[in-house]
Amino acid sequence: MYLVTFRLAPGEYDTEFHELNDAIQAAAEDTEGYLGKQTWHAPDSEEVLVIYYWKSLDALELFGADADHKRAKQRWTEWYDAYEVTVTEVVERYGNGFGDDSSPLV
Question: Residue ranges per domain, the chain?
Fold first, then answer.
């Protein structure tokens, strides 16, 4: 499994941003191998972390080829003050106490 961490400092969002963002989320959900996402907002700043869960790199690459996703990546300066993407392979997961529905992991 792979995690894509999208760290962002939000800027100004307009109608076009929201429409494109919704289209990108729909494309992710329609991609075989997409497992879900979780979002965190930093308590002391406007920084946001969005963690996307993917079954494989192939699934992630398929999503990366989506036309709306490519267009949004080209226009990031219109909507974000900063962003960073980190792709991580999960080699182990363990813990206790969050319950079966605590994450979109399969």
Answer: 2-89
